[in-house]
Specification:
The protein contains 21 helices and six strands. It is an alpha+beta fold and 460 residues long. Helix 1 packs across helix 2, helix 11 packs antiparallel against helix 18 and helix 14 crosses helix 17. Pfam families: DEP, RGS, RGS_DHEX.
């Protein structure tokens, strides 16, 4: 743009009793942008020029607001020393020196604007202890400026003013050099949150349900080889801890089979189970084989969305229209928009009523069922269900007195326990605590078994 041959023509304009050096008009900038950048729309060229002016690459000589006007307004190029590409980060003390220097020069073009006078008063209060040093710096710079040529001094004053118009803009104008995008957006009272707060809250809420962090009751099956924990989790009768977990959110209810069953029973009691039935049907559709998907899509449409459907659901017009188009080309995700809408409805309405219902409160207050066997025949229990290897080995090597008592209680049992040969091998000292004894990989018919009297071995 500053090229002598192909750039914008720069000239000195004569006015009454004065000259304005090194200026060009705003219309010249717009014409140059349209010609050299192949811009057909004049508004687009004007917008591009305004962005360049807002960043301080050229500026109006008689206005603090850095905008481009497609008229005869005079503009001047900024010296490369003050370009924003040099990553300027001026301090408030530098701004105070600049404003103080302008008050020492008795010229109309250097008078402070209202907002600049307010800024000077505010800075003077803020730097009251070192204001004398700031004043001395401003006085020294003013003496250096007086030694410059008149035309050079006039151009330099306007360029310095434009530099501060970029970094300390007029109130109401966007600061293009602002680093914090939140301040640039001019939002009022933005909601500030930290992601770590959500992570800590989630961790504190679920720590009681992590069997690797806390010792569960029953014990962790990955450590103790006791599968009681998994059996309780898979049971249709939910434990108190599982019911309490449903209160964390609707996702906890939907991913628990027992939770889905209880939630569905509650909705059926209120005659509003079609939403959950539709959501479950769509989830099941996503797991269907590809060849069964088109048929299943039509079944779901006829049951829940078609006119006169037996279990019609309530959808907004946008979701219904989108689903209608998707059904024409059936796929696994044809009901994605409808399912998301139904999910939000259940989360905001049905789930809240379920948590407040007496059904959930009764499940939550139910007594915890005992899982440990405190009385009765331990050997009978072990032969009736799978247990850990530690329990089997302890049962195999019962004390003789325990065997005689067991014979009195259960005379029909044979008190010779078949023990696999690999159970006789004790652990070596080099084995870690995570190691477990495992049977040899042989068919049952080929495994060598021993009939060992219970009383023949000492207790462990």
């Amino acid at each position: 743009m500053q090229d002598e041959k192909n750039g914008i023509p720069i000239r000195t304009v004569k006015s009454f009793l004065s000259k304005i050096p090194s200026v060009f008009s705003g219309s010249h900038i717009v014409q140059w942008l349209m010609k050299n950048l192949n811009i057909e729309d004049q508004v687009e060229a004007l917008h591009l020029g305004t962005l360049m002016a807002a960043h301080g690459y050229f500026f109006p000589i008689s206005d603090h607001v850095l905008v481009l006007k497609d008229d005869g307004t005079f503009y001047r190029f900024q010296t490369p020393y003050f370009w924003p590409s040099n990553c300027w980060e001026p301090e408030n003390t530098d701004y105070a020196v600049y404003l103080c220097k302008r008050t020492m020069q008795n010229k109309a073009r250097l008078e402070l604007a209202d907002y600049e006078a307010e800024s000077l008063a505010r800075l003077q209060r803020a730097f009251a202890r070192k204001w004398e040093f700031i004043f001395m710096q401003a006085e020294a710079q003013a003496k250096v400026d007086k030694k410059r040529d008149k035309v050079e001094r006039k151009i330099l004053d306007s360029q310095e003013r434009a530099f501060w118009d970029v970094h300390r803009p007029v109130p109401g104008c966007v600061n293009t050099t602002e680093v914090d995008i939140k301040k640039s957006s001019r939002m009022k009272n933005p909601h500030k949150t930290r992601k770590v707060a959500y992570l800590l809250g989630y961790t504190e809420q679920h720590v009681d349900y992590d069997p690797f962090l806390l010792t569960p009751d029953p014990s962790n099956p990955w450590i103790s080889d006791d599968t009681t924990f998994w059996e309780l989790e898979a049971s249709k009768e939910p434990t108190q801890s599982r019911v309490k977990r449903w209160g964390f959110g609707i996702d906890e209810v939907l991913k628990d089979p027992a939770g889905r069953e209880q939630f569905l029973k509650f909705l059926e009691s209120e005659f509003s189970s079609e939403n959950l039935s539709f959501w479950l049907a769509v989830q099941e559709l996503k797991r269907r084989p590809v060849k069964e998907v088109p048929c299943r899509v039509q079944e779901i449409w006829q049951e829940f969305l078609a006119p006169g459907a037996p279990s019609a659901i309530n959808l907004d017009s946008k979701s219904y229209d989108k689903t209608t188009q998707n059904v024409k080309d059936p796929g696994r995700y044809s009901f994605e928009d409808a399912q998301e809408h139904i999910y939000k409805l259940m989360k905001s309405d049905s789930y809240s009523r379920f948590i407040r219902s007496s059904v959930y409160q009764e499940l939550l207050q139910a007594k915890k069922k005992p899982w440990r066997i405190r009385h009765g025949c331990l050997l009978c229990h072990l032969t009736g269900r799978r247990s850990s290897l530690e329990h089997v080995r302890r049962a195999a090597f019962l004390h003789q007195s325990d065997a005689s008592q067991h014979q009195k209680r259960c005379p029909s049992h044979v008190h010779h326990v078949p023990v696999p040969a690999w159970l006789h091998k004790r652990r070596s000292n080099t084995m870690t605590g995570w190691s477990r004894m495992v049977p040899p990989l042989l068919p049952d018919a080929r495994r060598k078994r021993f009939v060992v009297p219970i009383a023949a071995h000492p207790p462990m």
